[in-house]
């Protein structure tokens, strides 16, 4: 029989943080004091069933979520890398961090039944120093090392989402809404995770974000102390290094340079269709490598301004967005083979069905008890 003491205090804190709420804000929603919320989260007291139900409703979680055991290392300080706007609020970053914890829960549950591709990333000889910036030559070397390790050659990468998932990297996307955040990544229990925002969704932005997080996972994870990541100066340095890695990885120096023939915007639209990289990122790469002269770069930027193309580039609407598919395949496989029921999955994770569908890129209604039920069957012959 379940009792109040079966409630896991950490889950209350995790759920609150995932919604970007302060203790005061949750207290107002639940009609209790801030002190009561604090005591629930520290385990000094436990909410009664009625209060727990109100907390669950306010935070959009199942009441069972708050009784779900937590991995011993879940609350430990860890190195999470954020691709965020410098004005992003700390509570927004904490919300994203809590969401990636839920992604880990999903992956660990599915891994009990599914053999996902093993992690396949090279080791690079990088020793972090907060005052040293990785040189351009080192960045180019690391990017080529990863391409060679994955046997990608030096041409355009057709589907980057496919490549990273086939090499054991767990990827998910969600709407961060008000969070000024493009993505985040971390290593956890020897598994690399990437969580991308769907709020500013174009294929080039998604691909660059994935490549950016690959830079963090390859160069920074495991070597940068968590406290350094929150330092503004260090964060700026790490973001710059990851951006340069993404450019070098998506646009290899020699092969991309051969493709740039002039500074016409129409030529760069053609290059975008081939390389699947934004025009703005290609302009940065040309500037960085000295492929075009200063006047050519200025002319190209002026063309972008005249066409109002900085916010919405040509081809953005035409290019299909690459979506994660590994968890979608896993859930579909389990359901189609009657290994689990949709309710088993929902209850095990504790999210509402609609949110779980978003985490796993599933069709809306697939996990909902009110979704389309099987009401027809084959006629006997």
List descriptors:
2 domains, globular, 381 residues, 434 Repressor (Amino-terminal Domain), 50% helix, 4-stranded mixed β-sheet, alpha+beta, 4 strands
Structure description:
The chain is an alpha+beta fold and 381 residues long. It has 2 domains: 1-70, 434 Repressor (Amino-terminal Domain) (Orthogonal Bundle); 110-306, Arc Repressor Mutant, subunit A, CATH 1.10.10.2910. It has 17 helices and 4 strands. The chain has helices spanning 9-18, 23-30, 34-42, 49-59, 90-111, 136-149, 160-166, 203-220, 226-229, 232-250, 253-259, 265-275, 279-289, 294-306, 326-336, 342-349, 353-359; strands at residues 81-84, 170-174, 181-188, 191-197. Strands 1-3-4-2 form a 4-stranded mixed sheet, with helices on both faces. Helix 1 packs across helix 5, helix 2 packs across helix 3 (34-42) and helix 8 crosses helix 10 (232-250). It starts with 8 loop residues before the first helix and ends in a 22-residue tail after the last helix. The model has no long low-confidence stretch (mean pLDDT 89).
What's a concise summary of this model?
By secondary structure, the chain is an alpha+beta fold.
Major sheet details:
4 strands, mixed
Uncertain residue ranges: none
Terminal residue distance: 50 Å
How many structural domains can be distinguished in the coordinates?
Answer: 2
Total helices: the number is: 17
CATH class of the largest domain: Mainly Alpha
CATH topology of the largest domain: Arc Repressor Mutant, subunit A
What would you report as the Rg, rounded to the nearest angstrom? 23 Å
Strand order within the widest beta sheet: 1-3-4-2
Which assembly state applies to the chains in this document? single chain
Q: State the helical fraction.
A: 40-55%
What is the average per-residue confidence, as pLDDT, rounded to a whole number? Answer: 89
- Give helix and strand order, one letter per element, not per position: HHHHEHHHEEEHHHHHHHHHH
Secondary structure tally: strands: 4
């Amino acid at each position: 029989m379940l009792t109040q003491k079966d409630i896991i205090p950490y889950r209350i804190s995790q759920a609150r943080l995932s919604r970007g709420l302060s203790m005061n804000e949750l207290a107002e929603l639940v009609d209790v004091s801030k002190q009561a919320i604090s005591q629930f989260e520290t385990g000094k007291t436990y909410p009664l069933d009625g209060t727990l139900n109100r907390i669950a409703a306010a935070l959009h979680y199942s009441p069972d979520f708050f009784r779900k055991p937590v991995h011993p290392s879940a609350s430990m300080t860890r190195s999470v890398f954020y691709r965020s706007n410098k004005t992003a609020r700390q509570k927004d970053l904490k919300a994203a961090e809590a969401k990636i914890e839920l992604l880990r829960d999903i992956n660990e549950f599915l891994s009990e039944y599914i053999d996902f591709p093993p992690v396949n990333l090279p080791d690079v000889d990088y020793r972090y120093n907060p005052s040293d910036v990785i040189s351009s030559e080192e960045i180019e070397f690391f990017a080529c090392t990863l391409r060679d390790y994955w046997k990608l050659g030096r041409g355009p990468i057709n589907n980057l989402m496919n490549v990273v998932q086939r090499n054991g990297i767990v990827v998910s996307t969600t709407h961060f809404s008000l969070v000024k955040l493009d993505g985040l990544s971390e290593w956890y229990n020897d598994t690399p995770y990437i969580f991308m925002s769907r709020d500013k969704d174009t294929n080039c932005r998604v691909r660059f974000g994935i490549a950016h997080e690959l830079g963090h996972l390859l160069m920074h994870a495991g070597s940068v102390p968590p406290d350094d990541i929150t330092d503004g100066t260090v964060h700026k340095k790490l973001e710059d290094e990851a951006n340069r890695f993404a450019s070098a990885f998506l646009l290899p120096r020699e092969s991309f340079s051969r493709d740039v023939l002039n500074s016409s915007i129409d030529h760069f639209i053609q290059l975008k269709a081939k390389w699947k990289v934004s025009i703005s990122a290609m302009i940065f790469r040309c500037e960085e490598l000295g492929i075009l002269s200063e006047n050519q770069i200025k002319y190209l930027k002026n063309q972008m301004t005249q066409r109002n193309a900085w916010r919405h580039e040509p081809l953005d609407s035409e290019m299909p967005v690459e979506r994660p598919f590994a968890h979608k395949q896993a859930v579909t496989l389990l359901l189609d083979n009657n290994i689990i029921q949709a309710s088993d999955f929902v209850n095990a994770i504790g999210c509402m069905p609609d949110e779980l569908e978003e985490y796993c890129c599933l069709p809306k209604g697939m996990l909902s008890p009110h979704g389309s039920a099987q009401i027809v069957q084959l006629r006997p012959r």
